[in-house]
Design a protein that fits this description.
With 304 residues, this protein is of the alpha+beta class. It is built from nine helices and nine strands. Strand 3 and strand 4 form a beta hairpin. Helix 4 packs antiparallel against helix 9 (263-295). The two termini are 20 Å apart. 15% of the residues are buried.
Length: 304
Amino acid sequence: MSFGRPYIMKTSGCIHYGWLVLKDKSGLFDQDYLYYFLGSNTTYKQFDNLAAGSTVRNLNTTPIQKVEIVIPPLEVQKRIVEILDEAFEGIDRAIALSKQNLLNAHELFDSYLNNIFTNKGDDWVEKKLGDICQNLDSKRIPITKSQRKKGNIPYYGASGIVDYVEGYIFDENLLLISDENLLLISEDGANLLARTYPIAFSISGKTWVNNHAHVLKFKSINLQKFIEYYFNSISLKPYVTGMAQPKLNQTTLNSIIVPFPSEKYCQNIVNKLDKLSTEVKRLEEIYQKKVALVNEGMIERGKK
């Protein structure tokens, strides 16, 4: 069998031959203590040392009998279980609180973003995207994976960085100034409709972009960031063609009407959204770290 984490069976039924069944016949163990102990990193390391196979790690009854286990008195075992139960309940509460904080931050961000675009001021104007930026799609060069030379330059596609290569297309010379920023907008892929990751994202410095992302250059970084937030907030369904492989072509992209305010107000909006976005990312990191601590901890919660 390949080995994983222990489970306590609380129902009657049949067990697959891939499971190793243990039963305390001598009455030496508190069941929950044995569960915690078998799921601990200490025991797991013993399993790993005893397991056979390189690709699929297997255990059977013979090596399992060699596992060393600590057997304190039953009263001590029960106290250990109480302490661990209380600790994991505390962890669960902390994770739930972190998740709620993250959801609240997302709701605040989405609410502020929605309020911006539904309550536009008198100084707002509407123009075609192609009229307020320069499209640099013609400078993109796709490289197949087999032809890429490994390097430290990020190679971008529709979903972000897909590899690191040698050489670059865009840099301070091509883009005129050393801190030039570009806005990438996905050209194709299911994410145009599914939205599992951002549609638009900014890049800077030396980069290489393939033909799965449109490359836009703006005169103002504030306008660029504003348009980035705008595109990540709207549905692109009316502009996307194709069912099996959704695509947003350059002509359609350039014709999309975008609303935007004056430069000063645009900067204020971007600063506020940047702060909210940073807070969301901070809470996301806290939540993921707490989840990771449990996953790397003594046992896999919820299986007891």
